[in-house]
Structures are given as C-alpha cells and as structure tokens.
C-alpha cells in the first residue's frame, strides 16, 4: 500500500507531482507536434496532387498539339492531291485556312522557293512582303532546307511577325517538300501563329485557374493564353514539343487561390480528428485528476481502516464460501498466537481448533456454508493457542456482502472471554462464601434457640430420671410399671432432643450444589422443624398451604431452603412486637401466575408484622443493610441472588391489614401442560 499523502514530505510530494505532470506535458507536446506534422503533410499531399494534375494537363495539351500538327500536315499534303491547277489549289487552301485557325498562310513554292500560289487566313489580314519571304535566309527557307535534308516536313524556329499596326505575333513555319513521280516538285510552306495554336489546340481544355504559354529555353514567353492571376500558391509544369527542326516549350501555370484553413477534405478531416484528440486528452486529464483524488481518498480510508484494525482488541476473521480464511486482523493473530501466513488459505482444519473439538467445528462450518444463519447474539466456543492452551471465545458471525450485493463469505468477530470467565468464577466463589457466612450466622442464632429448645426435653428427662430413681429406691411392687413409663418418657424426650439437633445438623452440613427435581412439599418439610423452633419462642403460629399435585421444581435444594428459612425468619422477627397479636406466619405454595401454561411454582411468605417503611424499602436488597442489632443484612440480598440464579424473581408487597408478603418463583422441572 502506498503511504497516505499526509505522511509524505513536501519534497516527496513535489517530486511525484512533477513526475506526473512532466509525463502529461510530454504527451501534450508529442500530440501537438504530431498534429502539426499531420496538417503539414496533408497540405503537402494536397500540393502534390495539384502539381501532378497540372503535369498531366500539360502532357495532354502537348499530345493534343502534336496530333493537331500531324493532322495539319496530312491536310496540307491533301491540297496537292491530283496535281491541282493554281486557282483550284488556292480555293482549297483558303478553305483549309478557314477550318484551321492556327494556320495563317499557306504558300506553294517551286524548287527554288519562289512563290507559285498562296492563300491567307480570312480571320486576320496581315501584310506579307513576298520579297522578304523569298529570301534564302528566311525562316521558311531554313525550314525547307531542313525538310529537304530530312525528306520529311520540317519546322522553323519561331520568329516575330509585325502586323503593321505596331503589334505583331510569334510565328512558326512548316515546310513540306513536294514530290511528283519521284522528283522534287517544290514546297508547301504553312505559317502557324503560336497564339492561335494555344487558343485553338489547348484552350478548350484550359481551366480558369490555368495559364498555358509557349516559352523559350530562358523562360521568355512567346505566346500566352489564360488567366494571368498570380498568387502565393503557384504551380508550374513544362512539356517539351520536340518537332523536326525545332523544339517548343509548352508551359502550364496554375494558381491555387488563397491559402485556406481547410484546403481540402483530407486536411479538414485531419484537423477535426486533431480537435477530437485534444478534447479527448483534456477529458483524460480531468478524469485522471478525479482518479487521483479518489486514489487519495481511498488511501486515507485504507490508512484509517488499518489504524482501526490495529487498535481493535476484537479478533476479526473473514472466510470465503469454500471456507478458506481470506483475512485475519492483528488482534486475532495475537489471540491464537499464529502469524497471518500460517492462517490465510486454511480451510477444513484451522490450526487453532482443539483436536478434540475439530470434528464438531467442521460440522458447524458445514452447517454455516449450507446456509445456516448463526445466532445474532453469538455463541461460545473453545480455541487453542499455538502453545496448546485452550481458551473460551465468544464468536459473532455475519455474512460478508460485497459491493455488488453478493454473498461472498462470512466475517467473524472473536472475543477472548477467559478473563470474563475468571471474574465470574471469582464472584461465584465469593457468593458461596457469603452464603456460608450467612448460614453460620443463622447457626449461631440457632444455637441460642437450641439451648432454649433442648432445655425442655433435658429438664423433662432429668425429672423423669429423678422420679425413676426414687421409684427404684422405694422398691414398691407397682413401681416397676411406673419406672417403665418414666423410661419411655425419657426415651421420647431424648428422641425429641435428638431430632432437634439433627435438623440443625442436616441444615448446616448439607452442601449439595447440584440442581435436582424437588417437590415443594419436601422443601417445606426440611425447614419447618427449624422454623418451629423460633416460632415457639416468639409465640408465632405457622400455617402452611401447598396446592395439591404440584410439579417438581428444578433447584439447588439447600439454597432454596435457605431462602425460605430467611424469609420465614424475617417474617417472624417483623411480628416480634408486643402490640401484634395474633402472630401468624403463612407459607403458601401454588402454581405460577399464568393460567394457560405455567412453567413456574410460586412460593409466598406472609406475615402480619410491622411492614416495610419506605426508607427501609430503598435499601432492602443492599448487602449488609439491616435494622436489627444482631442482624447481618445479608439475608435478602442472598435470597434475590439465589432466586435469580434459578431464573425466577423475588418481589414483595404490603399485606392488608398489616404486614408484608414476600413472593418468589422457581422453574418447573418438566414443563407439563395445564
Ligand atoms: P437481616 O435479617 O440480617 O437484618 P435481611 O437482609 O434479611 O437482613 O433484612 C434486611 C432488613 O429488611 C431487616 O433488617 C428488616 O428491617 C427488613 N425486613 C426484612 N423482611 C421484613 C419483613 N417481613 N417485614 C418487615 N421488615 C423486613
């Protein structure tokens, strides 16, 4: 687990923030440069597309011109077909000139280059000086010389032909050598106007943004056609027209308008994608920031949870649905003495199960995994430490539900209750000691009663013995009968004294702790002799009423007898007042208060005594509270403890017209339907 943020030094925090942000900055720079490169490449691609289209157009235009020139050569040759008369030739030549605007003049010359006939274009009248044209150094003459040498049509270089109106245009001559029956029979000289060539042969394919021109090698324009617009994005393509005798350069220029943000679909697409990419990046940064915050919160929560777990004294253990231990907290490890590594992953037999209980625990685990819910208040069990010592634990189990609401296992909390058990044992022992003390106090009290009670039989025995001795001394004949009777009385009185002593002995000696099923009548019978002792002394009449067919109660016989005895003694003492007469102690036993089914037997001890004053009532059950000089104040507090240990309750209420009723209940041994 990472350290929680608050434990980091500022330097560490700065370093981790720098590492994170430097990565993001690097990513942003990379993405930006990639996008710029993409846009630039898209622009370049677009430019190259325009350039190649222009070059294709230039090549098309070049081949158009070449085709037109060779077509013209054929048409010119056709003029000589059938050896025409001069006049007819001129008519045909004029017709040809009308059809072909790029041709401005056709001449028929003889072998010496002298003019025999000629025709001129009807579209543009121009002054032609025949004398100049017939010279041996004219362009036409040079072309014819070339043609003669090649034995095929030849072209001259371009030259400027003034129009006479101060203007002029570039021309080019074509010379066709004529043959008749294998002999040279003159020449046909056709004059091309370069400007018209562009207009007629290239113009129809030219777009508005293109410009076509014939140039010289140094770039001088001879003829131009098309838009003369200039912009920053100019494209240019050249095509060489290699004609026999001369070479023309056809150049095409194209401008591509003002540079725009989205020159074409590709660039627009790339730009849109770039914007999308940047947006995604921004969203990612935001998301990342949110994640970081969540991570920090999670680390805080984890640190908090860990601190909580470490400070817990309750052992925690989680198991999956197969029973494998998936988690233990430090308190659990400390409790059983095993390390987490020794515990995690264990399933069928955990190392802290005492071998003698392992089978029982395995069955308990099987029940749990079969869907048996554990008791909510938990259950007790015994675990074994690593050193083999056993200790009691309280286990509280609950199903483990994950974030999706699925049941993934069981979480158990363990409390080591050995200390609690020890305290309980201590308190039980001290309780017993207290009871023994109270019993001894009762015994002490009874000793004085005993001496009083034994006085009577002993005095009777003594007087019978004296009488018998006298009778034996007088040795009269009827005396033997009297002596026998006296002896019988002595025996009866001695038996009575023995019974008194035995009842006390039984009471003091009996220390049977176990609970047993006892009839209520038996409980009463056990204490009645002792009660009678005190009743006789105080002049109290004892009434008992036991409902017939009462079930047996499950109780610690000795303790319950002690309770009854305490209550009866308190009742008699409450009536030890000269003003109170008659003194009646009423002990009743009946079924518990419910009519439908009663699992309880109710004992009540009623007296007609002084009653309980409010200030006494407040402390009635407080140990060592007493209003009597010789009292110890333990009686009622013990009574309540004993009754509550049996699951019953002890209560009291005033009795009309005078006195108090103490009531307590005891559980019935076998529940019997009423
Ligand atoms: P002790 O009998 O040693 O005084 P108890 O705990 O039995 O101790 O009784 C505490 C006090 O409660 C008595 O001192 C007495 O004042 C009062 N008390 C108990 N039972 C009765 C009763 N039936 N009527 C009036 N007072 C009673």
The fraction of residues in strands falls at 15-25%
Q: What is the CATH first-level class name of the largest domain?
A: Alpha Beta
Rounded mean pLDDT is 84
- Supply Rg: 69 Å
Summarize the structure.
It contains 15 helices and 22 strands. It is α+β, with helices and mostly antiparallel strands and 674 residues long.
List the main descriptive attributes of the protein structure presented here.
Beta-Lactamase; six-stranded antiparallel beta sheet; binds adenosine-5'-diphosphate; five-stranded antiparallel beta sheet; single chain; Helix Hairpins; 674 residues; alpha+beta
Describe it:
With 674 residues, this protein is of the alpha+beta class. It has 4 domains: 193 residues, PAS domain (Beta-Lactamase); 105 residues, Beta-Lactamase; 92 residues, Helix Hairpins (Orthogonal Bundle), CATH 1.10.287; 161 residues, Heat Shock Protein 90 (2-Layer Sandwich), CATH 3.30.565.10. The chain has 15 helices and 22 strands. The strands form 5 sheets. Strands 1, 2, 3, 4, 5 and 6 form a 6-stranded antiparallel beta sheet that branches. A hairpin with a 5-residue loop joins strand 13 and strand 14. Helix 1 packs antiparallel against helix 6, helix 12 runs parallel beside helix 13 and helix 13 runs antiparallel to helix 15. The protein is rod-shaped. The two termini are 67 Å apart. The N terminus is likely disordered. The site of adenosine-5'-diphosphate has 21 residues, from helix 13 and helix 15.
């Amino acid at each position: 687990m990472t350290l929680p943020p608050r434990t980091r030094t500022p330097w560490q925090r700065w370093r981790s923030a720098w590492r994170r942000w430097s990565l993001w900055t690097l990513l942003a720079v990379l993405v930006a440069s990639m996008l710029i490169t993409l846009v630039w490449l898209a622009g370049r691609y677009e430019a190259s597309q325009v350039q190649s289209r222009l070059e294709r157009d230039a090549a098309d235009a070049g081949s158009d011109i070449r085709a037109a020139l060779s077509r013209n050569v054929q048409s010119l040759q056709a003029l000589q077909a059938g050896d025409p008369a001069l006049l007819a030739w001129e008519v045909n030549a004029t017709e040809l000139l009308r059809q072909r605007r790029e041709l401005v003049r056709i001449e028929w010359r003889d072998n010496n280059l002298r003019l025999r006939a000629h025709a001129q274009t009807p579209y543009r009248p121009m002054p032609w000086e025949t004398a100049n044209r017939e010279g041996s150094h004219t362009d036409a003459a040079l072309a014819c010389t070339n043609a003669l040498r090649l034995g095929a049509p030849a072209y001259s270089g371009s030259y400027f032909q003034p129009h006479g109106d101060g203007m002029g245009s570039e021309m080019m001559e074509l010379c066709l050598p004529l043959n008749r029956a294998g002999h040279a029979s003159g020449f046909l000289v056709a004059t091309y106007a370069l400007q018209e060539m562009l207009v007629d042969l290239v113009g129809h394919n030219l777009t508005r943004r293109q410009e076509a021109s014939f140039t010289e090698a140094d770039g001088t324009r001879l003829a131009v056609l098309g838009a003369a617009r200039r912009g920053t994005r100019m494209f240019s393509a050249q095509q060489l027209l290699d004609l026999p005798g001369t070479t023309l350069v056809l150049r095409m220029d194209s401008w591509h308008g003002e540079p725009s943000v989205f020159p074409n679909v590709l660039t627009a697409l790339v730009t849109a994608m770039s914007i999308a990419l940047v947006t995604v990046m921004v969203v990612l940064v935001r998301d990342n920031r949110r994640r970081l915050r969540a991570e920090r919160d999670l680390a805080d929560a984890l640190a908090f949870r860990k601190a909580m777990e470490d400070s817990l004294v309750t052992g925690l253990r989680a198991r999956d649905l197969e029973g494998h231990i998936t988690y233990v907290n430090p308190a659990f490890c400390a409790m059983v003495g095993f390390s987490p590594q020794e515990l995690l992953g264990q399933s069928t037999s955990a190392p802290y199960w005492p071998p003698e209980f392992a089978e029982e625990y395995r069955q308990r685990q099987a029940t749990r995994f079969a869907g048996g819910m554990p008791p909510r208040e938990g259950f007790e069990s015994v675990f074994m430490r690593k050193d083999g010592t056993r200790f009691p634990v309280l286990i509280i189990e609950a199903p483990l539900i994950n974030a999706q609401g699925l049941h993934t296992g069981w979480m158990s909390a363990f409390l080591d209750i050995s200390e609690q058990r020890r305290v309980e044992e201590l308190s039980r022992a001290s309780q017993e000691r207290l009871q023994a003390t109270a019993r001894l106090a009762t015994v002490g009290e009874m000793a004085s009663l005993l001496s009083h009670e034994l006085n009577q039989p002993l005095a009777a025995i003594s007087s019978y013995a004296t009488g018998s001795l006298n009778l034996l001394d007088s040795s009269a004949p009827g005396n033997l009968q009297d002596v026998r009777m006296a002896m019988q009385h002595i025996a009866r009185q001695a038996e009575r004294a023995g019974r008194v002593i035995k009842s006390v002995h039984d009471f003091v000696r009996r220390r049977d702790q176990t609970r047993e099923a006892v009839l209520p009548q038996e409980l009463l019978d056990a204490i009645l002799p002792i009660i009678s002792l005190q009743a006789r002394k105080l002049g109290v009449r004892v009434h008992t009423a036991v409902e017939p067919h009462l079930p047996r109660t499950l109780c610690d016989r000795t303790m319950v007898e002690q309770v009854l005895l305490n209550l009866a003694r308190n009742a008699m003492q409450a009536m030890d007042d000269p003003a109170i007469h008659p003194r009646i102690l009423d002990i009743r036993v009946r079924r518990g208060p419910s009519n439908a089914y009663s699992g309880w037997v109710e004992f009540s001890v009623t007296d007609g005594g002084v009653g309980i004053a409010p200030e006494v009532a407040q402390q009635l059950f407080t140990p060592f509270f007493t209003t009597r000089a010789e009292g110890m104040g333990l009686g009622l507090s013990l009574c309540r403890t004993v009754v509550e240990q049996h699951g019953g309750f002890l209560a009291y209420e005033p009795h009309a017209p005078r006195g108090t009723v103490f009531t307590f209940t005891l559980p019935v041994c076998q529940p019997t339907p009423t």
